[in-house]
Amino acid sequence: MSLTSNELRDLLSRTLASMPEHAEELRELDAALGDGDLGITVQSGSNAVIKAFEALPSEAAVNELLLAAGKAFSTANPSTFAALIGGGLLAAAKAVAGKTSVGKDEALEIGRAVAARIIERGKSQVGDKTVLDALVPSLDVLESAQGDAKAQLAAMIDKAREQVQATAALRSQKGRAAWVQERSVGHADPGATACLRFLEALARSIA
Predict the structure, then answer these.
(1) What is the CATH number for 173?
(2) Is 153 exposed, middle or buried (0-12, 13-18, 19+ CB in 10 A)?
């Protein structure tokens, strides 16, 4: 499946519209490990991106969508997660400059660019109990996944869900969550959970 920039904008808007439903879940997960602001970050960030999309001209290119999304998400709430995801989207905008549609290859480019910027700015890697623990493995699955877009996304969700469950056994290595040390064990990572919820919402939006 290949989407035009307008189709991508509509799909992401539908997906993001459902993300605030998970604000309380993410707040509770984050409160167990950090300052509990992830719920409001995802809620305000999602709403801000939708508004930013609405303000763009109808002929906006894929990179312009990502640029607007990155700026909107990063400034909607002053949190580390917002800065990392927003910065990742800005990097992704550069990666797909000149593209007028998005298929599997472009989706991988976008995802890899987001992950690379998070690794760079957050000084983190897979296994540190962060959003990367769901994001990177799900992208690895997409790279080798067969079938149509729905089947590929379902495979990504299965891997992300598996990875989120696995983060509960890990000790947090980054951010405020690292401060609680051993007490972080037993709790799934909130950032990785947010990634999973986004993929699930994306699947519902294209069903």
Answers:
(1) 1.25.40.340
(2) buried
